[in-house]
Give the backbone structure.
Amino acid sequence: MTLHLLALETSSSLCGVALLSRADDGAITLNVLEHDAVSEHAERMLPMVDQLLEQAEIAPEDLSAVAFGQGPGGFTGLRVACGVAQGMAFSLNIPVIPVASLQAVATRDHVALSVPSPVQIVVQDARMGEIYLAAYQAGLSTGRASWKELQSPVLLDVGQLGPWLDFAANAWGLADGPGARLLGDALQAYPALANVAAERHWLQIGAAIRADASSVARLALQRWQEGGSVAPEFAAPLYVRDKVAYTTLERQAGAGGNPRAPEQFLILERMQEEHLDVVAGIEAAVQAFPWTRGNFSDGLNAGYDAWVAIQAGAVVGFSMSMFAPDVAHLLVIAVDPGCHGSGVGTQLLRRCEQEAIQRSLPAIVLEVRQSNENAMRFYLHRGFEQLGMRKDYYPAPDGQREDACVMQKRLA
């Protein structure tokens, strides 16, 4: 039976629709329609889908899944692709395959697989003097090409690219190893970025390209083979920029323009045994009744999903989650006191949400001490709501007990 994947990409001004068909013998055909114009995605997307399916003589009922470029990119464009993908998937009772648009850019600039392969650093124009950036490295997994995400999408000021490149070179040994390529449409939007790249001998300058529907389709096929589809209600755009401008109250308080991108650079890695001494130290620094090193070790052995945030070679935060069949449970999350307010906790929480969505879990739940007002504000600001209380859940000084607030964030 032939597999048919429909792919939608609208993260930039390019509105694209692709139909990838794979026959039983493995032969692949790819049909594409594109239109490049600003603010026309909503009116053109569905007619382009109908036209492409008609040209390929494929009925909507023959589709196996709908993929979409989830961003980052223009807010309106991302919502169009996601909304169309969800609507079609709901009506046809088929799954959705979200594909990071920056990874789609990385796959467009074909790299010969070697060991190790050059790192693909993608920079996309985010307007207002900012760029979206992510980094990927090609490799082989069970005989197939695969892509490892070294840097999840982040928002940077254009002037921060140089420091970030130096950070990445030290973190991944690029100067003495595989090197890297810089590519993406930000090279065209900000020509000075080429000068930044030229100052680093280990960095090549690639093409000023954007994500397109055909690259989204090819990545979607790989995700399909890996079981990476989700139910339609779990499809969501990837918004890296939390806000476009400050509110009126924030401007009255002295803020202005667009909120600044983070000054420090982070890498998120899966927690390993060698991280546990530092992890336990951070936990002890922020909790009166902390988890022990043994607790964290038991969590790793139990298969819990655990991550550490690394900055300048040092662990500055961590999280550990348990994925039940019906819900994700954030067990513990903490940030080094010297890094509070720098976005470390937000990135760790976002990673937990992404891992839960990949498992089609509808929500994240957690408990927090009733007296921990800072933590309560942190979670409320990021979409959590209070469900109830658990009486005497936490130990407290002098042999007392403290209630826990149960909070939940819906992911669908």
